[in-house]
Every structure is written in structure tokens, then in C-alpha cells.
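cron nightly-structures :: item 1 of 1
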Amino acid sequence: MSDTESQPAVDTDQPVPAYSWYALSVLVVVYVLNFIDRQILSILANDIKADLGVDDAYLGFLYGTAFAIFYALFGIPLGKLADSWKRVRLMTIGLALWSAMTAVSGFARDAATLTIARIGVGVGEATASPSAYSLISDWFPARLRATALAIYSSGIYIGGGISLAIGGLVVDRWNAAFPQGDPVLGLAGWQAAFIAVGVPGLLLAIWVVTLREPVRGAIDGLETAEDPHPFKGFVRELYTVIPGFTFFGAAARGGKALAINIAVFIGALAVALGLTNILGSGPGFIFAPITDQWLLLAIGYYAVFCWASALRERDYPTFALTWGSPAFLCTILGYGTVAFMAYAASYWGAPYAERTFEVSKAELGFWLGGGGAAGGFLGVILGGRMADALFTRFSSGRIWVILFGLVSPIPFALVQYTTDSFTLFLILNVITSALAASALGAAAASSQALVLPRMRGTATATFFLATTLVGLALGPYTAGYVSAQDDAGLSVGVLSTLWITPVGLLLLITAIRLVPRANATVLERAQAAGEPKPGG
């Protein structure tokens, strides 16, 4: 079957209400703040390193794994809740939580406390994208979804850029005014910066709660009734991913399932302990389980296994269209390899430039943040438009855009992290940010197109498992770990993440072959897996 024959019907006439664009703009503001709170850690990294006595490996862990594991795992039950409850309310609660925990980060006095606060940020932020992706898919027709999702995703780059500018400005001015810390609480500049960006989110939550909830699936002619017991599935999924309770869930599925579950748990812990000993990567803090890269990652992967096993039992149609779909898995894991390199570069760019070029935080935040925001914004918008344009011509068109986002930044990154010129570094930062960002809208829209409307929140959570557990949890840590080895330096650390490119190529080339037919047979495959017919 050719791409043309398998291409789903695209409604070119369906109007988009003005309210959809207004609501999208509000979601963009939320996502901007989301990434301000997340990315500000980059400009503060060197100060945290000096004050708390940690190394680059821990800084990569703090930005990546400590945040990513809980962001990903809580995204599973919260994705389920986004599929069954009011998505606007869910996002409002999450916004208030992550903003409060960002402010709490400003009062941290040691690595363990800061880690716990960042975990709280991860849990709160896990509400945002499952809710937003599902809302956008109900506000915009299929022909414009990659564009709408790309506009939403521009918040990543705008927020990331603003965070560097705000963080640099606050730190420099605070430290100049209070070189020994403020006289009341003794806060350093990096702590004041966390508080400064955390508090506004509590006010933004009041605006977000006023958004109108769209009818789920109506825009696709697949209107889905409200779930009469929306929190039942959430609690069930929450128990599914909490180690300990996971054994009871497996036992309910039979003795064989319990044996496999225990074996996977023991195997994951054994691999984690082995990696910690071989790589010497254990931080050795009092709260070692909280701050151990591989142990925390093993728990995360084990929990994902438990969730996928339970999903297969409880909602086989959703499992079949996500975990059971090679097209879906190759698409999200292929984008995960893009995120692996992009997260490492976006986080370590500011600490690298500060160490290499000896510029002030305020100057660095303005130029690096502004350039990254401009490049990322242009890249994600143009990439989204290109993805939609190619999708109307052939069903694998969006995957080609993801592939472009994987390979095109590489030659520019090689020069960026070896040049002695600060000006050239800034110029290349704009280019690499734009090229890497071009893949995001295409990947997001592709994941949504491969499932039914009622499955979109769960599909989004699964998509973010790939971006976080492959990209965010491993990319920044890998760069930091390599940098910390015999003072290899951040140049070697960041460029070491390029090894994952062949893996991404293999996954995306496979997706290009599989996605056209998968797009054309979504409803057919769901019904074959036991999904009731619409209206039946």
C-alpha cells in the first residue's frame, strides 16, 4: 500500500474558532513558565556547584534524572486522569504545585533537599502536557494539529531563554547587593532566583482555571462521554507505578505475572548497583536512594514495566495502539534520541560558556537565552508547519521532519563546543536550537495521530516517557558524568552524547516504513483489540 493510498482523510475546510487560538495562547504562557521553572537550573548550575560542593555528574542528575523519573512516572496516572477528568482543572492544580516547589528550591541548604524540591517540580509539571496535548487535539482539526502543538511547544524555547535572562540578572544583582547573603534569611543569588520565578505561577493558575473545557473527541466526530468515575482510573494507575504496591497488582494477574514482576524488579536493581559500582557514579549522600542516578533510573524503568503490564490487562486497545504498536514505539523512541542530545546541550550550554568565556551571568543569560529562545521558537514553528505540509502529501511526512531534527544539528554542534569565539558560540547556539526544535511538533502530532481520542492523554504520557527516560534522564547526566571524569570538561561531555545518533536513525527509518499503514488503520486496529465501535 502506498503512502497516498494509506493516507487518512484530512479535512481542509473545518473552521477553527477564535477561542481555540485564545486558549492555545494561554497554554503557551503556562508552558513558558513551565520551562522557566525547569530550565533556570542551567544558569544557576555553577553557583549551586560551588555552594553545595557537588560535581557535574550530580548537576546532570539534578536537572535530568531527579526531575525526569517523577515527571515521567506521575505522567502515567496523570495522563490517565487527563483522559477522564477536567483537563483545565488538572493543569491548574499542577501549575500551582510546580510553582510552589520551585519557590521551595530557593530555601534548599543541601543537595538532598534541593533534589526533593526538584522532584516536586517534576510531579507538578507532569500534569501540563498530557492535559495540553489532549485539549489542543480537541480544539484544532487534524490538519492543523502539528502547527498548534508546535506553537504550544514554542513555550519550551521561550521559557528556556527567559529563564537564563531572568536567572542571570537576579543572581548578579542579588549577589552584588548581598555578597554574604541577605541579612534576614541568608539567601544566595541562586536561591533568590528560584523564588523569583516560582511565585508568579501561583497567580497564573487563577487565569488558567477560567478556560472552557472542550467536548472530548467532538472535532473528530468521535465524541466521548464523560467518565462517571474519573479518579478511579487515576488511583488504579497510581498504585500501578508505586514500587511495593506493584507486587499486589501483579499478583492479581496471576502467579506467573507476579514471578515475572519480581524477576524484573530484582534484575533492575542488580543492573543499577552494578552500574553504580562499575562507573563509580554513586553520589554518597545521606539520602543515597534519592540521589543515586542508576538506582532511581532502575526504579523508574521497573515502574514503567509494571504500568505497561497492567495497561495490557486493563485496557488492551490502548496498549495495542501504544506499547503494542511498533510504529508508535519507533516514533517516540526516535524522538527520544533527539531529546537525548538536545537536553544535554540546552542545559550545559550556559555552564560551559560561563566557564569557557568568563562572561557575567547577566550578559550570558541575555545573549544565550535570547538566541536560544529565538532559534528554538523559529525551529519549532517552521518544523511544525513543514510537518503538516508534508503530512498532507504523504503519511510519513512528519517522521521525515523528526529525522531532520536528529541529524541536522550535529555539524554545527561540533563547531559550537570547540570554538574559542564567544560570538560564534552564540550564533551556532541559535542554529542548533532551531534545527533540533524542528522535530518536536512533528513527533507530538505523530504520537497523537496513532491513537483514538480517548487515548490521547495516555499516549502523551507514553510519548513523554521516551523524551524523559531516554532524553532528559540520560542526556544531561551523560554529559555531566563524562565532564567529571579526570576533568575532561564540558566540551567533551556534551559532544559525547552524539553517540546515540545511529540508534535514532535506525528507529526513525523504521518508523517511516511503518507509520503510513498504522495511521490508516487506527480505528481498525483498536476494534480488533476489543475497542467498541463508535456509538455501539
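cron nightly-structures :: done
Residues 469 and 477 are 12 Å apart (CA to CA).
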